[in-house]
Amino acid sequence: MKSIILISGLLLSTATHPVFAEEQCGKVTIADMNWSSASLIANVDRFILEKGYGCDAELIPGDTMPTTISMVEKSEPDIAPEIWRNNVKELIERGLKDNRLAIAGKSLSDGGEEGFWVPQYMVDKDPSLKTIKGVIANVKLFKNPENPDRGAFYGCPAGWGCQIASENLFRALKLSDAGFNLIDPGSGAGLAGSIARAYTRKKPWFGYYWAPTAILGKYKMSKVEFGSGTNIEEYQNCIAKPDCVDPKVTMFPTALVQTVTIKSFAEKSPLEFEYLAKRSFTNAQMNSLLAWMEDNQADGKTAAEYFLMDHEDIWINWLPTDVAKKVKSAVNAL
């Protein structure tokens, strides 16, 4: 009789008390993508899942296409912290339809951002430069170093995916007719260097760039407004295509950047999935972190530790109180 009562008491205790996260989590694999923001997020996830939820978390090398294919076809890894949805749109949709994938939330709450930019110090001096009309009206400010009688527009490096869209928008905006030359910076480093040189000397600059990036974390830039709004159909059907004959003006659409998991992880680890749904960075936050990574030549692990130590005000909002206490204790021990 005592045994029956004891067993009943144990069963009742289990039924009325929540199961701890570490008893549910187990082994978790996380794709460590080969670019800085994704590697930072992957390392933040590993630390929080290990220290806060008791998971056996492991990072494995990843890249957008092979990781997504593997998740859809082989159900591994469990988590891809930063997937740019437009780059694997059909794969993601197939994975969702076949009940192989789940979307946790947005890795970047603002989404990936592209545009034509000028330095903020120019807009502070002349607010009209925030618009394409203002830029065109002041073409003589943006002197082409190779041809001072023309203005300079720094485009996306040749061979990059953004080259097509930026050149089509250059045509749509009739920037050549306005007096601008389209300059190929030669490389990503060349494009970044042109911004850095202009900023150091407080000189005019006008060109294409994207966020989140270390450059926009270091140098405050203002995105030029075209006054057109965003026409996604025009962008997809013409601006983004090399055979776009008659491009029309449109702002770049925001790229959806999400955290994707396999469906079985979402089902067996609801608490951890809830964390991933809340874990998100603004572009301003990520720009700043990427700038810190570049300045300190830091890898994803080092950057994650810096973020966790210096930005508790951000990550504490992603976690339940009990989990946050565990993570804070682990951070204090770093």
UniProtKB/TrEMBL annotation:
- Keyword line: Signal
UniProt feature coiled coil, ranges: none
Cleavable signal peptide: 1-21
Q: Which intervals hold domain ABC-type glycine betaine transport system substrate-binding?
A: 27-308
Q: Does the keyword Ubl conjugation apply?
A: no
KW Signal (keyword) present: yes
Identification of the protein by name: ABC transporter substrate-binding protein
Q: Which organism is it from?
A: Shewanella surugensis
